[in-house]
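Quick one, probably user error.
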């Protein structure tokens, strides 16, 4: 068993039990409760926001030059790396994910803090061309207090992706993890607290506020001290937040859902494409915003490719995240497993052929866990609900296409525009399709590879704004223009 953090939220620099309702967090591999975590109350959200505003304005932080701020990020990166085993085991227990994956996510969280520290130290401001007797400067300043709201699927990586640039930008942060998976964010909060303490920085720079989104998350978004919200989660929640942000005319960034097309052209390297398609949808048990959940195969290759794919999917090893041989781990929660199962029932009603999977695995090893078999469906039009709605589980729907125009029309016939994969040896075709498809990220002959140096975000209903990259910090700052008069004479009009 991993070390379980105490039932304490971090409120304006103080660790204490939240005054709100308790909620159990469950290991989805066993169904056992691993911890009970109290939510914070609405008064405590307000207290955390006030504390964050004070911390952001504290001269120890406000006046710290960027290269000194970077020291905090470097120290957090070190502490994360030193705690890799604990953090990975904790996230596996809380989310069900395979240990190999959670270890990689911890590594990526540490790398995010390091990269952001380097970007911070090398970020430049501009002297813009002068058009008069003045010098013009364009500079960046902190927003103040940032609300960061995350889903349950990859907590440590999503937390790092928001915390590192928000702190780098000179802000204080109110972090709200998902109610189903608060543990790793609480553990990360302890590491940040330690780093702040070691460097003599205000403790209120980070609050970790546990509890339900409709209460605690909503209170963060509406709090008058909060000047920006960065959200990752479902599209309908994102839309709700956008309405609340509009009331305050507050900037927000949204990383939302997807129904990403993976495309196999007739000339693809079939071995690579098979491995890539399976990894794209079934790794993380399909609980990934960028999961390649709609498979488009050239009609002449369709029967052969999908037939071989199904043979291989049947052999994927389903098991607990703690087993190093596991490829498909349990889903995050039994309630989520039921929602995935309901989608496959809907697919059957819509007339789908279930080529493999389509149910829970049988046997005592699976009895108590939130398992679902990797599933391949076909026989549905792209307009069906199964092809249009995000299932967020190990469910792939396959469709044939006739030519490039037909493919692009079907791929873009979706409210989402998050990602796309293209498998082909024809680099010209890859280029044409990549440029025509509505997707924030396109992978060509690879899938689900991520670099913190490369901006990420969605088009259409998959999101607003971009995270990562050197400019990622700018999303957490306000731009200001300065005009510095250098004339000897007074301004002519007033004279
Ligand atoms: P969700 O239901 O939208 O929840 C996300 C977070 O928002 C949770 O912390 C949730 O709290 C909170 N929340 C819910 N209602 C809220 C409200 N009215 N005000 C403020 N906060 C609120 O999403 P999910 O089911 O956890 O996560 C799955 C979704 O995330 C999928 O659609 C997936 O595609 C998307 N996702 C996108 C990306 C990306 O980068 N584009 C990455 C990962 C996941 P509670 O759940 O604790 O109540």
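Nope, works fine. Designed sequence:
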């Amino acid at each position: 068993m991993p070390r379980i953090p105490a039932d304490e939220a971090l409120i304006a620099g103080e660790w204490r039990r939240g005054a709100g309702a308790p909620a159990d967090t469950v290991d989805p591999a066993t169904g056992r409760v691993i911890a009970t975590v109290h939510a914070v109350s609405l008064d405590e959200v307000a207290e955390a926001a006030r504390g964050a505003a004070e911390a952001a304005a504290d001269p120890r932080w406000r006046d710290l030059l960027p290269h000194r701020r970077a020291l905090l990020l470097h120290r957090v990166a070190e502490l994360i790396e030193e705690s890799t085993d604990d953090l990975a085991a904790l996230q596996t227990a809380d989310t069900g994910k395979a240990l190999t994956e959670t270890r990689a996510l911890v590594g990526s969280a540490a790398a995010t803090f390091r990269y952001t520290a380097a970007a911070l130290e090398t970020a430049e401001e501009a002297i813009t061309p002068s058009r008069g007797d003045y010098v013009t400067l364009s500079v960046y300043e902190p927003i103040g207090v940032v609300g960061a709201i995350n889903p349950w699927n990859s907590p440590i990586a999503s937390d790092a992706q928001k915390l590192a640039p928000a702190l780098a930008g000179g802000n204080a942060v109110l972090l709200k993890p998902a109610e189903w998976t608060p543990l790793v964010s609480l553990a990360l909060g302890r590491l940040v607290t330690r780093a702040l303490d070691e460097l003599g920085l205000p403790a209120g720079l980070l609050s970790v506020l546990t509890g339900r989104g409709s209460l605690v998350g909503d209170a963060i978004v509406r709090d008058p001290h909060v000047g920006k919200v960065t959200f990752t989660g479902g599209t309908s929640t994102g839309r709700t937040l956008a309405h609340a942000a509009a009331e305050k005319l507050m900037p927000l960034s949204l990383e939302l859902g997807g129904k990403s097309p993976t495309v196999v052209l007739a000339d693809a390297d079939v071995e690579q494409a098979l491995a890539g398609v399976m990894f794209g949808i079934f790794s993380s048990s399909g609980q990934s915003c960028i999961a390649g959940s709609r498979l488009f195969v050239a009609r002449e290759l369709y029967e052969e490719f999908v037939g071989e794919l199904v043979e291989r999917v049947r052999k994927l090893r389903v098991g607990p995240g703690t087993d190093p041989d596991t490829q498909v781990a349990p889903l995050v929660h039994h309630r989520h497993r039921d929602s995935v199962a309901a989608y496959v029932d809907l697919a059957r009603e819509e007339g789908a052929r279930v080529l493999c999977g389509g149910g829970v695995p049988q046997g005592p090893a699976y009895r108590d866990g939130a398992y679902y078999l990797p599933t391949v469906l076909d026989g549905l039009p792209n307009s069906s609900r199964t092809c249009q709605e995000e299932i967020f589980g190990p469910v792939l729907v396959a469709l044939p296409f006739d030519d490039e125009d037909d493919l692009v029309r079907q791929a873009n016939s979706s409210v989402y525009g998050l990602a796309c994969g293209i498998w082909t040896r024809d680099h010209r075709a890859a280029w044409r399709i990549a440029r025509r498809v509505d997707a924030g990220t396109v992978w060509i002959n690879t899938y689900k590879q991520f670099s913190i140096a490369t901006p990420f975000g969605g088009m259409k209903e998959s999101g607003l704004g971009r995270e990562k990259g050197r400019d990622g910090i700018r999303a957490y700052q306000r731009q200001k223009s300065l005009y510095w008069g250098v004339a000897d004479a007074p301004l002519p009009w007033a004279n």
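The chain has a mean pLDDT of 98.
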